[in-house]
Specification:
The complex is a heterodimer of chains A (321) and B (440). Chain A has 321 residues and is mostly helical. Helix content of chain A is 75%, strand content 0%. Chain B contains 21 helices and twelve strands. In chain B, strands 2-1-3-11-4 form a five-stranded mixed beta sheet, sandwiched between helices. Chain B has a five-stranded mixed beta sheet with strand order 6-7-8-5-9. The chains are: A mainly alpha (321), B alpha/beta (440).
Chain lengths: 321, 440
């Protein structure tokens, strides 16, 4: 042990000698606070340039009629008109409802299936490590790959999905269209999102289950608590903060979901699966209504930020119990 | 504010164009931007003559159609220097002219003796002028195009199929002249067994993201009397956009979508149509004339493919496609770009352009007595170009197009509301856009 300390001291001395005297003098002249600022400055500058400045700029644009495809046109301050129009536009509310439904159903399925899988994997049966890896594969794939892959699976004439449904139900494979049908298209996205992200929820739940000390179950068994009682009185309450964390992460991600919806349905048929992010993209980069789309982006940001804050407070309350 | 926006746009453009800058224009090089499709290959071939004559190296930037507008309009908006010459869509003219993205060519045409009277009047109006109907030229007509039809000639001429059609409908099986006839034929083929394979009536445009369903539905709505304004230039859309004829046309398009398209045909455009037709799935396919030369040359389906012009109803009309070639104002090789325009306007070059598969609209080509018989679709092309109608070419065309895409797709594919409601909503959307532009 003494040897180790001695080596470290020697190394520090060598390093100090190797440091140019001017730099040493400069660093010596700085206060701890200044050195701390020096260390965090690069991160702060990056944050300002990449996050804060665009946010402030977007807020500023949201009060104008600016269009990125008309750089020579006069930019007029329109006050709250963009916000007023958006908040009274039925299409925007429909897009928000679509988003909410998508978030609700996909998170519900992912949580139920993810927790169930985690519970099974936690039993540590033979080969559980192998099956854990297999289950995790979908979340390792790129959304672009998954979107294109499922487009083929859903193809009504040659897609495997329709044939599997046909095999179990007896309906003609080409008699229904997952991506083109008004009633099925929203579910087609929920299915793919669930397939891809359930492993993620499972992983977090598994961490929660493995954090429960064995002695609690042993004490419950001494008290002759049934497995059902143990599940509801020990497992679920102790894993709940982890489940809530998974729901928070997936909720934020799904609220701004774009890539999968864009690849699978593009918001169609019609506007049936047009979630808020698709509407925003169309406004910003197809219709080039930069001002109104900036206002929409701010509304979405406030909504996600507000909901996430409320949720985090609830999460903290659960953790304190 | 504007300055800040420009700086930010400039920074973004610089980042985006970093890769492209490595191919920055040299004095003896030109980059021509266009969509990636059959005629673009013909243009590469044609341009070899220009390279040989001038020593200028031609580079090409071809973008797939679904991304063409996004990619190139971003480029123009960002003040990029990727393109010296651009064959841009007709609807971009208004915005590109007003935003200063294109060079006005009047003085150049006067100096070089290039007369717009030498080109088909409909093409000049559609591909070159802004404001519409004025002699202000921002492009040289480069590629005439309209929406037309491909059909399986072998099926239409099969004696058994012809007899069955006659028995069922009392009419002769032939390329349709009206939309009622079209629907009857499409219904006849829908789900039919031909050569042991189930086939379908027609492939039509239903694409949602870019322009597909608008281009498809207007091909039916124009013949039923759909117009954009009651008085040209007045933006008085009530009674024109939602006229009885327009409603009937849109209802017919939905009926065709419901009765006669292949399964899963909910988001389909040019590529999907070509796939369905070439694989023998459909009896008829809506698509642009631009694809006809390639189809006629196709070894497998070319010999069994026929073509017909868009059917009429109360009037004869076809949806306009095609583009003009413009000089991008930001080019570093203005002289070279103008030299290309001058070379391209030459009647001999125009004739070769047609021979290679490009749709020249120079009168030296179109008025040639041998033109109608020069290709199996040439006569139909002449008919189509004389009855074309185009979408708004306003600077706000992108917003106008997105609104129409949404309303049409909601009604036709997603079964939302009625045709009248869809067109009424469309007028409301367009009114807001024109109000924002200060035109209403």
């Amino acid at each position: 042990m003494d040897n180790d300390t001695g080596m470290i001291d020697r190394a520090a001395t060598v390093a100090a000698r190797a440091t140019p005297p001017r730099l040493v003098r400069r660093v010596r002249g700085l206060s701890d606070k200044a050195i701390a600022w020096l260390f965090i400055a690069p991160t702060m500058i990056l944050l300002l340039v990449i996050n804060i400045f665009p946010l402030i700029w977007t807020i500023q644009l949201s009060f104008t009629n600016y269009r990125a495809n008309r750089p020579n046109a006069e930019v007029v301050n329109v006050g709250l008109r963009n916000y007023e129009r958006l908040l009274t536009d039925p299409d925007v509310w429909i897009a928000m409802q679509t988003t909410a439904q998508f978030v609700f159903w996909s998170i519900l399925l992912q949580t139920v299936i993810g927790f169930s899988l985690a519970y099974l994997i936690d039993r540590k049966f033979r080969g559980h490590a192998f099956w854990t890896t297999v289950i995790l594969i979908p979340m390792m794939l790129s959304p672009a790959v998954v979107g294109n892959f499922w487009r083929f699976l859903y193809q009504p004439q040659i897609g495997l999905f329709n044939y599997i449904v046909s095999f179990f139900t007896g309906v003609e494979p080409s008699s229904f269209e997952m991506l083109g049908s008004v009633s099925l298209a929203p579910w087609s996205i929920v299915i793919v999102d669930t397939w891809m992200w359930t492993p993620y929820v499972m992983l977090i739940c598994l961490a929660g289950l493995r954090s429960i000390p064995d002695y609690i179950y042993e004490a419950a068994e001494v008290d002759r608590a049934s497995p059902w009682r143990q599940f509801w009185s020990i497992t679920v309450p102790m894993a709940l903060p982890f489940i809530m964390l998974a729901v928070l992460f997936r909720g934020i991600e799904n609220f701004k979901m774009f890539d999968m919806v864009n690849l699978l349905t593009g918001g169609g048929p019609g506007s049936i699966t047009e979630v808020a992010s698709i509407t925003l993209k169309r406004q910003a980069f197809e219709a080039w209504r930069t001002g109104p789309s900036s206002a929409f982006a701010i509304i979405l940001f406030v909504a996600v930020f507000g909901l996430a804050n409320i949720y985090v407070k609830a999460l903290n309350r659960v953790k304190q119990r | 504010m504007q300055r800040l926006n420009k700086i930010a746009l400039g920074v973004s453009a610089a980042a985006l164009m970093a890769a492209a800058s490595t191919t920055g224009a040299k004095a003896d090089e030109l980059t021509l931007c266009w969509a990636a499709w059959d005629p673009a290959n013909a243009l590469v071939e044609l341009s070899k003559d220009f390279e040989a004559q001038t020593g200028t190296k031609m580079n090409f930037e071809f973008v797939p159609w679904p991304n063409f507008a996004d990619r190139i309009l971003n480029e123009l908006n960002a003040g990029g220097k990727l393109c010296d010459l651009l064959i841009g869509d007709s609807q971009w003219l208004g915005g590109s002219a007003e935003n200063g993205y294109y060079v006005k060519l009047n003085d150049f045409f006067d100096k070089e003796g290039i007369s717009m009277d030498d080109f088909a009047a409909a093409a000049v109006n559609a591909y070159s002028t802004w404001p519409k109907g004025t002699p202000n030229y921002w492009a040289l007509p480069a590629m005439g195009d309209a929406n037309g039809w491909f059909y399986r000639k072998d099926w239409f001429e099969d004696p058994a199929i012809m007899a069955d059609y006659k028995t069922k409908t009392g009419a002769d099986l032939a390329p349709p002249k009206t939309w009622d006839e079209f629907k009857q034929i499409a219904e006849f083929f829908q789900g039919r067994e031909v050569n042991g394979q189930t086939v379908y009536g027609a492939a039509i445009f239903t694409e949602r993201a870019s322009e597909g369903i608008t281009m498809g539905a207007t091909s039916v709505m124009y013949p039923y009397g759909f117009k954009y304004e009651m008085t040209p230039g007045a933006y008085d859309m009530e009674g024109a956009v939602n006229s009885e004829g327009a409603v009937a046309g849109l209802e017919m398009y939905k009926a065709l979508y419901k009765c006669c398209t292949p399964p899963g045909y909910t988001d389909s455009y040019m590529g999907e149509g070509l796939d369905a037709f070439k694989s023998g799935q459909v009896a008829m396919m809506m698509n642009w004339f631009a694809f006809m030369p390639g189809m006629a040359k196709d070894e497998k389906v070319g010999p069994v493919t026929g073509f017909f012009v868009n059917p009429g109803q109360t009037v004869a009309a076809s949806t306009l496609g095609g583009q003009g070639i413009s000089v991008v104002a930001n080019t570093d090789n203005m002289d070279g770009a103008l030299a290309y325009i001058k070379w391209f306007a030459n009647p001999e070059v125009q004739k070769k352009w047609w021979a290679l598969g490009g749709y020249a609209v120079h009168k030296a080509v179109l008025n040639d007595p041998s033109f109608p018989s020069s290709q199996p679709f040439a006569a139909d092309f002449l008919v189509a170009m004389n009855q074309v109608q185009d979408f708004w070419q306003e600077p706000s065309y992108a917003s106008l197009l997105q609104a129409m895409q949404k309303r049409l797709h909601d009604y036709v594919v997603a079964d939302q509301g009625t045709a009248k409601e869809a067109l009424d909503s469309l007028i409301a959307d367009w009114t807001v856009i024109f109000e924002d532009d200060g035109k209403l």
